[in-house]
Every structure is written in structure tokens, then in C-alpha cells.
């Protein structure tokens, strides 16, 4: 009995121990669970404190203690126990900072916070996570150094920190025994690549590009035998490419471009049998391309352009690299024959071939016609290629650009070339080509640029050239072409530049030339043209360059040429022109060069700007010019005001009595209107000189002081015609000083246009002009300073994001400014160049339209058309600018519509994704209305909310708002001007959208 009793006690004791153990395990598990919960709540508190509406943050709405944290969005727990093993919050619109308490998630193996707006530093405590394998923090606003602890984690497999604002150097002590990927591209890192990094033998992908790293590329990179992807380009590395890179036999992608490496290409790169893409362009590389490199048989892209490479290219290149799609060797000093191009017929996927500006020689064999049918770009200019153009090139049906200029080609253009129906650009100039231009050229309706200068073509221009509907530039200068210029050519309304100089053309200038509404450049010098100069030339008010010299034009110069307000170069010399110089020439404000020499002109030299700066050589060898004492011409007789011809004197005798009678009447009438005319003259003077209305005069020296002598430190930006500096005037007023580069064509005209327009407009949404400073050597506009810079920088900056409400406010501000210009100002004003870089933002993010350098003042009505010589910016300009050559307010509406679509999608109209017939508007049309959310700028979704499925009501509200904006943008950007909305109709639509966003 004693033994049994003792046995029961033992059993009871064992049961008691088991109970105690189970209880302690439960307590421990509960403690661990509470640790994970506390860590997640600390992260929630830190990441939703960025100043936005917390209700728009999915974490704020979903991460509540009402449900277990393992069910929270973005959280994944272990199957065995409620411990967090993965936190994936990519693209969740997170703001604020990364909580250091995440280091308490001791089972965490994956942390993905990429594509958010998190700021601050990376917590050093993350280095304590014992199981962390994936650390993904790319595309945030993180700053400061990379914590050294991150690079000493035994469990890490991937470190992705790209596109932040991280600074300092890469940690020098690296202990990452399992690491496979390190991406720190697009930061502000400095210093050298640490040697320890190349001891991580498990590395497969490294991207250190787009930083400010210095020093040389470590030769120890060759130890990373598992590497398949290496990007070091766009840094400041110096020294040669280490030969040890050739040990990386698994590498597929190698980018070392846009650096200052120098040295030669190591022959060891030929060992990279798996290499598919090699980028070495703009790297200062010298020497020859090693023969061994051609053994890289899997190469798809080989880019070695803009270096100092020499020597030949092996004729078996195409056989060695049959997978090539892009081969770019342009702008080197490579030499030898071109047999290697024939071998490229083995490359069935070849799309781009660039060998321009080298020292290649030899002929182009007909086998070139067997190149890839997908070839789109063939650049071979600036070499020593001789022989004839191979007929086989006509087989390359996908070709868009063909450039064989500046070579030594002979013979005729093969008729097979006219089969290239997709060809848009054909450069054959500066060769020795002969024969005529076949009429089949009219079949190439997509041609935009035809450039055949300095050859030996003869015959006439075929009339079929008028069938080339897309023709913009035609250059047939310095040939032996003859006969008359076909009338069909003068009907090509989209023509921008025409150069037929130094040929043997004859005949008259037709009235049809008035159809060239957008023409900018006409050069017909040194031909055999005759007759009078057509008055239709005066209708080309967009033109800036005219040269009709060395022809046989006679009779008088048409007065209508005085209407060419935009012309800068006008040469009528070496003709047989007679009569007087038209007084209307005094209106030519922008002429920099006027040459009327070697004609038969007579009479008084007019006064005016163009004649105050003219030289005697521009008027020499005429019959009987007088006046202009500064040029030492004889004074004009007192009774001679126009021509001294006897015929006009006889006519004067008959009309003199009538004039005397009229003068008596005019004398009486003038007394009656004297007061009125004096008042009108004053008013007219003020209207014609708006720049005199400014209430503030700022001398050059004050502007120089304000900008610290126009220091680069105060540079806000560069434009096509000058620079803009930030300055502080003597009274402390912050200003933007727009200084024009007077050596740039059109700068003075742009200054006058902007001064004239801004001088007479005042509106909250137009940039205010404070003053001007102008003399013969210096021109500047003093504008109000806009501290938040341009809309363009906000849309495409890694560090700045616009909310939906901010975007609507900006669109509304711009519409109000345009409504004022189009409908509320006494004279209709068309801006002509509306785009994000011309929309500036003040300290309160109020948008203001700027850059009125090509604005047009229209004095008739809202539908009037004014010719323009500047058709705005590609992608934003209305399609009718290229067809009718005129501008209306509906052209601005088109630009505004494109701007709306850009604000919603975050895509520029010139984005590389748009090619052929696909443009931004068509892309949006394809998605509207069924797939709107698929094309919306990801930044909008990130800021508003992340997980759309969790907030269907918010999805619907956002979808309706974005659809409304897109609908307005599509209406404004319709192809036909009369189908577009007017700005006075757009304004209330945007105001309703803004009110709807505020309410919801």
C-alpha cells in the first residue's frame, strides 16, 4: 500500500510540472505576441504622422486592435505561431518616418516599404533583426547615411535602397554572407566602393549607378563569380576598366557608361560568354575594340559611341553576335572596311545601326538589303564610304531614318529606295551623287526631311514632290537642278524650311507661295529666277530668313515686304531691282542683316531701326540712292522725296492743283480735330510702348548687385534664349531676373513680345513683371520671384508630390489666367506655348502662367487667326499650327487639354512610350472610361489611399473625379479647333470639381 501511495504522488507531481510548463509557455507566447503588436502600432503611429489626412491611409483604417494583427493588411504571420514574418506595405501612400521599434519583430524576414513618401533616416536598429532577408526601401524620401549595421546582417539576401536622398559613403565594413542583391541607384552617395563589398561572393546583382561615387573600379569585382547584373555608370569613377571583370562569366548586363573611366577595353571582356547588354558610351575609352569581345555571342545591345576607339571592326561581327538588336559605335575614330555591316544580315532582330562619324571606307554592298526587316535607324554619315547606294536598301521596309550624308558616294539614287514607305528622314547630302530626282519620290508620303545638298543632281524637281504630305524641310542646295520650281511645292502648307540655292532654277515666284504659312527659311540665292518679286512673299509673316540674291529679279521691291515683321535676314542683292527702297522697311524691327547692294535702286534711303545700323556695303552699287549721311551718301534734293524719275515729275504736274485744293480742306479740318488727335497720339504712344508704364526703374548695377554679378549660385534655370537668376533688390524684394542671350536668334523679338504682353496684363494667375533693363548689349526682364519653381519640377521630381486637390487647384488657376487672356482682356492674347515648365508656383502653391516670349496679340475677335513663326513645343502645340500656320485661342485650349491629361497620368506627351500613331491623348482615349485607374499617376493613388479594394466608396469618388478631369482634357484637346471647349466654359467645370473634392 505504501508503494501505491508513493506512485500516485509521483504521478500527481508529474502532472503538476506539465501544467506549470504549459502555463509558462502560454505566458511567453502572449508576451511575444504583445511585443509584435506594440511594434506594429509604433510603426503605424510614426508612418501616419506625415501631415496628411489619416483617414486616407489604409493602415490607419485597417490596423486596429479590434482584429488580430495577423489579419491586418500587409502583415503575414508564421503558420506555426502568431509572429510577424513579413511586412509588405509597398505603394501604401505612407508618410512620416520608419519606426525603430520594427527591430522588435524578431521573426521578420521580409520588410517592403518601397514606393511611399517616408522621410527621415533609416533606423540603425533594423540591423538587429536576426532573420531579415529582404529589405526594400526604394523610391521614398529617406535621407542621411546608410546605417553600418545594415551591411552587417548575416541573414540579408536583398538590400534595395534606390531612388532616395541617401548621402555619405557606402559602409566600409561589410559582412553579408548571404547577400544576392544590392541596389542603391539614384542617391547622393559619395566616396569609393568599399573593398569589403567585393568579398560578398554570393552577390548576383549590384546597382550603384547615378550617384557621386569616385575613385577607381576595384579589381576585386572579378571575385564575384555569381554576378549577373552590374551597373556602375553615371558616377565619377576614373581609371581603366579592370581586366578582372572578365572573370564574371555569368554576367548578362554590364553598364559602365557616362563616367570618366578612360583606358582601353580589356581583352578579358571576351570571356563574358553570357553577356547580353554592354554599355560603355561616353566613358573616355581609347584604343581598339579587342578581337576577343566579338566572342560575346549572346550580345543584344552593344553601345560604345562617343569615345576615342580606333582600328577596324572584324568582318565576322554579325556571325559572332547574331542576336544584336542595337549596335551603336558612332563618334569614334574606327577605321577599315564595312564588310562587318554585311555580316549583320545574320542579325534578324537588328533595329538600330549607328556607325556615323568614324573613318570607315569602302563600298556599301548590295547585300545590305538583306539586313533585318525590323531595322528602323541606319546612321552611317561622316565616313569615307564610296561607290553607289546599294539597290538592296529598298528592301528595308521598316526604315524610319536613313543617313548616308558626308561621304563619297557616287552614281544615282536607286529607284528601289522609293519603296521605303515608312521613311521619315533621308539625309544624302555632301556626296557626289548624280542623275535626276525620280518622280517616285512622291510615293514616300511620310517623308518629313529631305536633305540632298552639295551633290551633282541635275534635271528638275518632280511635280510629285507636292504629294509628300508630311514634308517639313527640303534642302536641294548646291546641285545642278534646273527648269522651274514646281507649283505643287508651293502648296505644301507644312513646309518650314526650303533651300534650293546654288542651282539653275528659272522662272517666276508664283502667287501660290503665299500658302506657306509656317515657312521659316527660304533660300533661293544663286539661281536664274526672274520677273518681279511677288507681293505674295509679304504674306509669309512667320518667315525669319529670306535670301533671293544673285538672281535676275527686276522692277520695284514690293511694299508688302514691309509686313514681314519677324524677318531677321533679308538679302535681295545682285539683282536688277529698280525704284525706291520701300518706306515700309522701316517697320522691320528684328532685321539683323539687310543687303540691297548691286541693284538699280534710287531715291531716298528710309529712316528707321534697320537703316540706323546698316553698313554701306549693304547698299553699295545702286543707281542713285541719297540720304543716310552717316553712310556718306549724297543728300537728297529738297523737292525729291521719292524717285527722281521724269515720268513721276510729269505726273506731279497734273495732280498738284488737286493737292492744293485738298490741303485747304485739310487745314480747316485739322483745326477741328487737333485736340482729339493730340489726345489720341498720347494714348497710342502709351499703347505702343507698354514697357514704359512700369512704376519702378531698376538700373543694371542694381540687378548686378541683386544677383551677385549674375553668379551661377543664383541660377534658377536655363532656357533656349537665356538664363534666369534669383536676386534680392536693394529694398529686399526677391525677384527673378530673366537675362537674354542676345546672340541667340529670336532673343530680341522674344524680349519685345514678353515685355509688350506682360506690360498690359494684370491678373492673379499671370506672372507679374516688375521692370525691364534694356540697352544695346543687355536685355533683362525683372519678374516676381516664384519660390516653388515650375509645375514641371513638381510633376517629375523624386522628392516632391502633388495631391489631387493641389492638381485641381493648379488646373483651376491656369484656366482662370487663360480665361482672362482670351475673354476678359480688351485685346485677345494667345500664349502659344503653354506647358508645365511655363507654369510657376508661388509660396502658397498658386499657379501663374509665365514666358510670354511668343505670345500673340490679336486685335480682331476670338476666332481670328494670326500667323506664327514659332509653333510652340512639340507635344503641346495644336495640330492646326502645322497645317494652317495660324494661331487662335483654341490652340491654347488644346495645350491646356494636354496639360490636364499630363497632370492626371504623370506622363509627358513626349514620353518614349508614345511612338508612331500612339500619343498621350490616344493612350488616354483607349483607357477612358473603362480603365481610368490603370493610367492614373501612381503618386495620386499613393497619396490618396493605397488599397483601393478596402475603400470602395472612396474608389468611386476618386474614379468619378479623375474621369471628369480626363473628360475635360479630351474635350479641350480635340483635333478640330471648333470642337474644343472655350476657357470661359472650362473654369466653372473645374470649380465644381474642386468643390466636390473638398466636400468628399
From TrEMBL:
It catalyses: L-threonyl-[protein] + ATP = O-phospho-L-threonyl-[protein] + ADP + H(+); L-seryl-[protein] + ATP = O-phospho-L-seryl-[protein] + ADP + H(+). Residues 1-25 form the signal peptide. GO terms for cellular component: plasma membrane. InterPro entries: Kinase-like_dom_sf, Leu-rich_rpt, Leu-rich_rpt_typical-subtyp, LRR_dom_sf, LRR_N_plant-typ, Prot_kinase_dom, Ser/Thr_kinase_AS. It comes from the Eukaryota. Its EC number is 2.7.11.1. GO terms for molecular function: ATP binding; protein serine/threonine kinase activity. It is a single-pass membrane protein. The keyword ATP-binding applies. The chain crosses the membrane at residues 654-673. Keywords: ATP-binding, Cell membrane, Glycoprotein, Kinase, Leucine-rich repeat, Membrane, Nucleotide-binding, Phosphoprotein, Receptor, Repeat, Serine/threonine-protein kinase, Signal, Transferase, Transmembrane, Transmembrane helix. Gene3D superfamilies: Phosphorylase Kinase, domain 1, Ribonuclease Inhibitor, Transferase(Phosphotransferase) domain 1. It is found in: Cell membrane. The keyword Transcription does not apply. Its main location: membrane. Residues 710-990 form the Protein kinase domain. It holds the Pfam family LRRNT_2. This is non-specific serine/threonine protein kinase.
